Amino acid sequence: MTKAAKILIVEDESIVAMDVKMRLTRMGYTVVGYASSGEQAIQLARQTEPDLLLMDIKIKGPLDGIETAERIRALQDIPVIFITAFADENTLQRARITSPSGYILKPFQERELSIAVDMALYKHRMEKSLRESEERYMLAIQGANDGIWDWDLQQNQIYFSRRWKEIIGYHEDETSSSLEDWISKVHPEDRERLQMAFNHHLDGLTEHLECEVRMLHKDGNIRWVLTRGLAVSRTGQRPFRIAGSISDITALKQAQEQLIYDAYHDFLTGIPNRVLFIDRLGQAIERQKRNHMDGLSVLFLDLDDFKVVNDSLGHHVGDQLLVQVARRLQKLIRASDTVARLGGDEFVILLETTKGITFARNVAERIEEELKTPIKIEGHEILVSASIGVVMVSIEHHRNASDVLRDADIAMYRAKAMGKDRHEVYDLPYNQIAAQRLEIENCLFNALERGEFQLNFQPIYSFPDRQIVGIESLLRLNPVDGTPIAPSVFIPIAEEIGLIRDIGDWVLLESCQKMSDWHKRYLNKSHLDIHVNISIKQLRASGFVDRLKEILDLTGLKPSRLKLEITENVFTENIEQIAVVLDQLTLLGIQILIDDFGTGYSSLGYIRRFPISTLKLDRTFLFPSKGNRSNEEIIKAILALANQLGLKIVAEGVETEEQADYLDELKCHFGQGFLFSRPLESQVLENLFQNNMVQVTR
Ligand code: C2E
Ligand code: MG
Ligand code: MG
Fold first, then answer.
1. Helix %, strand %, coil % for the chain, to 5?
2. pLDDT digit string (tens) for 18-70?
3. Distance 422 CA to ligand 3 centre (A)
4. DSSP 560
5. Ion ligand 2 — residues with CB under 5 Å?
6. pLDDT score at 433
7. Which DSSP symbol is given to 374?
8. How far from 202 is each of 150, 247, 429, CA to CA, in Å?
9. Is pLDDT at 632 greater than 80 in this prediction?
10. Can you give the pTM of this predicted structure?
11. Which protein residues are within 6 Å of ligand 1, measured from CB?
């Protein structure tokens, strides 16, 4: 374009004008005309739209060259070169204001003219493209809705654009220009990350700055903001400036979160889906392996004849039914358990409990019970039942979640095969388990007679002074010709086959006798209580209170020194009958404790209605839960409520000094666990008493 550039000459001496025109034409420019006065120049400039004005400063008429140039440039973006014979300071000063692209002093050489014209055209082109790119940049930024920041590292001043402030709800004049001010508006948890991102980039560790943080909007809400930036430095030196943008990505984040949520939840019922279930089950299995304990169970539930509902009433009703079933299942389990929909009419439930198979069966029974109430959908009353497979997760047999699901599925099929509307427990080598159970049953029938039962005693300590205040008796079964059997295994069986009453009486008699003896033999132990575990079946059996009175008479133990531990599920049925028994016991002066509190279904509301003195907080509450202090919150809440209701709390399963300190801190009343003492044989405990040791070590 250079050579074809159009030039307008303004010159009142026609000879000079002709001369310049000739020279320019020789150089390859197009001279679009020449004007001899200001007015004429303005008119020609408008008509011919030249790329350059060659303007004599001194021209005829009311307008001189400088003023003419000014007027033209007010309307058109055309560079000007002044030609003048007078270079007095005053004139030059006036000319300068119009920011000309050059001067040529008369008389001039052709070469001077050529350089001046080339330079002027070039400079103008560059300025124009720079201006355009700046405009494009501004437009892009405005279009992208980003906020701009520009940090002068030498002055330590940050410029924030209007939009930057707007994104977090501030007006132009509302924020200062310091980094501190910026950081203070970042969510406290994200501040360090942003600082690091800045530091890394300024240290040259990253090619650019990019960091997503939450910022606190003036309205109190949180906005997700993507911060980007680039540092500017001279080679080999630390940056002197860093600038960039922030963009509001809140909507994007929310959409991402929704996507993640959707990926883990069933679209129809909103409960967890297969993916989330497998994830949670997998984690629970790992936890179980680490802690070397049992206690996980899975229920696999398939609705009976769901197809009939779907076919006869339509998919719409079928879907509604699934939603209702999901709701009912959710209502039945605790917040710590998981109900998920695997797909179709299949649901699964993950229970974490230390109560073994009885607990899982219990939940299955509740589900069966719950489904007996018809579900109302669009005027239809639908009665639906389920076949449930129950599996106890075992570290030996289940490597992962799918192993467990497979077995739960098998058990569910057995429930279907056995007539539906029922639950079946998966037992690994079925025959082996059945044989084992038979063996335990046989053993139990003769154990009392053969003297195979034994009691162990585990002390309970007070906080903060850590003195023994009581002793819990724990039953052991050591068959003469076999390996010991754990109470969590044989007690449910004894309950089922109706032996618990006799066994329980034996435990009560032995326990009361032992404590009564100790009171007599060790005078300084006469304040100790004996804690005895009582099964619900025992409480419900007729004549319990009378037999207990006899035992107290016989052994001479003060009723006030006897504490009975019962589990929460006493409150699940026949509450009125239980209430009468508990009242009678309390009248005798015996205290009632709730064992394993927090694992069952009872609410504190229930507990208030009964004469309960103490809650034994289940040991699962003390499980270390890294980074998750929710257990702590629960313990605090329970303690607060207990204090209000005048109840004492015993924390079970205190295994570490750390847990003890922490319970101390929370002002928990009592603790029991391996840290203080394992359950001991009576002889061992007596030796300790003999030596008057208060602190019993492992
Ligand atoms: P429980 O009444 O909650 O007894 C506490 C259980 O936790 C005992 O298990 C005890 O050995 C264990 N334990 C105590 N401290 C710790 C600790 O720091 N860490 C861990 N991991 N465990 C600890 P055990 O002796 O196996 O008894 C299990 C359950 O069997 C008892 O739970 C109770 O419900 C039942 N049981 C025991 N004896 C009798 C009884 O005579 N009658 C009845 N009906 N049930 C009994
Ligand atoms: Mg107990
Ligand atoms: Mg317990």
1. 50, 25, 30
2. 989 999 999 899 999 999 999 999 999 999 999 999 999 888 889 989 999 99
3. 30
4. G
5. 533, 565, 595
6. 62
7. P
8. 14, 21, 65
9. no
10. 0.48
11. 458, 474-475, 486-488, 491, 507, 533-535, 565, 595-596, 619, 652-655, 672-674, 679
